[in-house]
Amino acid sequence: MTDLHDTILGWYDAHQRDLPWRRPEATPWGVMVSEFMLQQTPVVRVLPVWETWLGRWPTPAALAAEPSGEAVRAWGRLGYPRRALRLHAAATAIVDRHDGRVPDAYDELLALPGVGDYTASAVASFGFGRRHVVLDTNVRRVFARLLAGHEFPAPGVTKAERALAESVLPHDDSAPVWSVAVMELGALVCTAAAPRCDSCPVARLCAWQQAGRPAYAGPERKVQTWAGTDRQCRGRLLAVLRDADGPVHRSALEAVWDKPQQRDRALAGLVTDGLAVQVGPDAFALPG
Description:
Largest sheet: 3 strands, antiparallel
Strand content: under 5%
Low-confidence stretches: none
Shape: globular
Order of helices and strands: HHHHHHHHHHHHHEHHEE
Helix content: 40-55%
Strand order of the largest sheet: 1-3-2
């Protein structure tokens, strides 16, 4: 175990990316914002939005003081814009329940709107140095290969998977660094499509390598499509609302998507999700 820890931590010390939410001066709020933004979104796309966001809203109170529609507008083209609404709701709850300070306890973080097990663990660990198992996509993939000998983990986190991750989590104050180091290894070396096993610092310890790198034998992995989907339609409509200074007439939305039924369905979905509001018979706007 010491060999495993020392090797991965040493690799991380030499190869880690300089990301602002990992720097010593990063606040727990900055860490929380990064965790919301990084869900299903690459670091390169998150960086400029995170920096702009923290420049405008350096505290939960600053964000909570503005309408939720401004959070959606600032979210830009990161995708999955409901995350912006959830982050705004979390900021409001932090102000109402915790005097504007991000709580450091896992249970209190988990009780915030939009915060699940992963985000609560990540903020407690990376924002406050607490000892928690942090299982994102990259960490799960590394542990599936390194410890269990499988190319990919199961679709959802299992009790056995969590217990295995807990068994290798350091018991000293290096636990948060260990979690982010494994995460970085998955992002840079032990990638999903083309793992760089020849550059992996723990290839000699990897159960998947020792088993001959067997192909994934679990349920078929979902491949997300984009062109022509409701998600793409929603994105087009939301971009029109986001770029406007005020309400938008329905005709402007019709101009960006030429399939009426799909467009109406997507627009209704945006309203239902709270990402848009109808402000007149044929006018729509961001919330707030």
